[in-house]
Amino acid sequence: MSRGRPGRDDSPDRLYTLTGGRSSSGSDAFDLVTLIVAECDPVPGMQSEHAAILRMSRFPTAVVEIAAELGLPVSIVRILLADLHGTGRISARHPRATTYRLPDLDILEQVLVGLRNL
Amino acid sequence: MTASPSPLRPSALALLVTAAATGTFSMAAVAAAPSSIRVPLGWFAASGSLLLAVAACAVTWWARNARQLRAQVSALTADVAVREAHIARLTADAARETAAHTAERSRLVAGHTAEMDHLSTARAAELDRVTQAHAAELDSLDAAHRAGREQLAEELRLARSGRAAAMAAAANAAGRMQALATGMLADLREMEHKHADEEVLGDLLHLDHRTAQAGRLADSIAVLTGARSGRRWARPIVMESILRGAMGRIGGYQRVRLHSTSEAAVAGHAAEGVMHALAELLDNAANFSPPTAEVHVYVEEVPAGIIITVEDSGLVMSEVQLSRAEQAVTAESLDLAGLSGTRLGLAVVGRLARKHGLTVSFRPSARGGTGALMMLPQELISRAPAEPVPAPPLIAAPEPAPRTVTVPAPRAATVPAPAPAAEAEPVHDSADTTHDSETTGTTPVLGESGLPQRRRGRTLAAAHPEGPDAAAAAARTPAAPGSASQSAARFGSFRQAVRGTSAQQPSTPTHPEGNTQ
C-alpha cells in the first residue's frame, strides 16, 4: 500500500462513518466519467468531503478525478455525490450527452502524437 | 377467828365435851350433897365447870393455832429452799450458757480467720496462676499473630506479583490485539479501495466496523492494564475526523449526530486518547438510550479549550449515579477491583482523562437524558488544520519540474500564496488563485475540438489525503504508478496524457496556462 508504512493507515476516519453505513448509492446516475458541477458553495458545518467536492467541482470534474483527489473508493464517492445530488447542491452531466459527434480527426491525431511522445 | 375455822371446831368440841363432863359431875355432886350446901355448891360447881370448859377451849385453840403456824413455817422454809435451788440451777445454767457462747464465738472467729487466710492465699495463688497463664497465652497469641502476619505478607507479595504478571500478560495480549486490529483496519481499507463491487464493499464496511469495535475493546484493556496506547498519529487530527473516528468505534454509530463547525485539530499524540475517550462516552450514551433515539455531539470552542458534549435522551441518571460516574472518571488511582466486565467505559475514560489532562463531567441533559462534557485543554489543540497545510506546497513543488519554462510566473506566484494563508483555508485559497487564472466559466465549455475542455489536473494532490509521501512518489515516478492505489493509478495515466498535450502546445492562446499571463 502506498500510504506510509505497511499495516498503517493515516486517517482515523473509517469509510462507513462517511456514508452512515451505506455501501450503495441507490442510483446509477454516476459512472466514472460523469462530470460533476457544483451548484452552490460549501457552507460551514458541512461534512468535509462534501465541502471538498463542492470546492473541487466548481468546474466540471469527473467522478474518478474527485475520487482520486479525495483518496476514496469510487463507490463511496458515488454515495457522497448521490447525497449532494439529492439536495440539489451538484448537478451531473454525462460526457456522452454533450459530445455526441466525433471530434475532428486532426485533434485525435494530435492526441495520438502527444501520447506517443510521452 | 373466821380465817382459821379449823382451830375453831376442835376448840368448840373441847368446850362442849368439857362442859358436858363437868356439868354431869357437878349435877351429880349437887344432887348427892346435903340440901344446906346445895345451893353454894351448885354455884361453885357451875362456875368451876364453866371455867374448865373455857380453859379447855382456850388450850385447844392455842395448841391448834401453834401447830398450824409451825406447819406454815416449815412449808415456807421448804418453798424458800426450793426457790433457792431453782435459782442456783438457773445461775448454773446461765454460767454454762455463757461459757458455751463464748466458746462458740471464739471457735467461729478462729474458723473465720482460718478461712480468710486460706482464701487469701488461694487468691494469691490463683492470681499468680492466671497471670502466668495470661502471659503465656499472650505470648502464644503474639507468636501466632506474628506468624499470621508473616504469612499474610507472603501471600500479599505473591498476590502482588501475580497481579503484576497478570497485568503484564493482559497488557501484552492487548497490545498484540491492538496491532492485529490496526493491521486489519489497514488491510480492510486497502480492500475497500480495491473492490468496486457495492456488495463486496458493503461486506467490507461491515467487517471494518466490527474490527474497529474489537480494536476499541483491545484499546480499553490496554488502557486499563497501563500498556502503551495503541497508535500515535504523526500529525494533528482535525476535529471532524476525531468525532468520526470516535463514532466509528461504537456499535450504534448510525444514531450519532455530529454538530461541529470547529476547524481545530487535536495534537497527534493525544488524538488517539481523545478519540477513545469520546468513543467510550458515545458508547455509554448509545447503550443507555432507546435503540431508536439519537445521540447528539456538539463541539464548542471556549477560551480554555474545546468542549465536546455528548447528549442522549435515554435514562436520566440520578444524583447518586451522576456523582458515581464523576468519581469514576476523576478517581486518582484506578481501583481494578471495582471493575465489571461490561462496564469498563468510565474507568477507561478516567484513565485517559488523567493521561491527557481532559476534564469530564456529567449533568442531566436538556434532551431528557444525560449529558457528558469533555473539555480538551488548549495544549492539546492546534489551530492550524494540518491536513490541508502540507498539500498545496507539495503539489506545487513537484509540478514545476516537468513544466515548460514559458509558464513559471503563475506557479511561482501561487507557491508562496498558500503558505501565509495556510492558517485559514489553504486548499480554498490555492483553488481560488487557480480559478482566477483560468478562462473557463462555471459551466463546461467545449473547446474548438468539440471535446469538453477540462482544467488541468490542477490539484491532483491538493486535497490528496494520502499524504506527502504518496503524492511525491506519484510525481517523482510517473512511469510507475503501480504503487499508488488503483484509482490514483488510473488517474495518473489520465493526467500524464493531459500533461503531454499541454507540453506539445505551450503557446496555444486557448491553453488555460497561457491566459494567466
TrEMBL record, chain A:
Pfam families: DUF742. Residues 1-13 have a biased composition (Basic and acidic residues). Residues 1-26 are annotated as: Disordered. It comes from the Bacteria. PANTHER family: DUF742 DOMAIN-CONTAINING PROTEIN. This is Uncharacterized protein.
TrEMBL record, chain B:
Keywords: Kinase, Membrane, Phosphoprotein, Signal, Transferase, Transmembrane, Transmembrane helix. InterPro entries: HATPase_C_sf (IPR036890), HATPase_dom (IPR003594), TCS_sensor_his_kinase (IPR050428). Residues 425-438 have a biased composition (Basic and acidic residues). It is an enzyme of class 2 (transferase). It holds the Pfam family HATPase_c. It comes from the Bacteria. The keyword Kinase applies. Residues 415-424, 461-489 have a biased composition (Low complexity). The chain crosses the membrane at residues 42-63. SUPFAM superfamilies: ATPase domain of HSP90 chaperone/DNA topoisomerase II/histidine kinase (SSF55874). It catalyses: ATP + protein L-histidine = ADP + protein N-phospho-L-histidine. GO terms for molecular function: protein histidine kinase activity. Residues 499-517 have a biased composition (Polar residues). Its EC number is 2.7.13.3. Residues 415-517 are annotated as: Disordered. Residues 269-380 form the Histidine kinase/HSP90-like ATPase domain. The keyword S-adenosyl-L-methionine does not apply. Coiled coil: none annotated. One of its GO terms (cellular component) is plasma membrane. This is histidine kinase. It comes from Streptomyces lavendulae subsp. lavendulae.
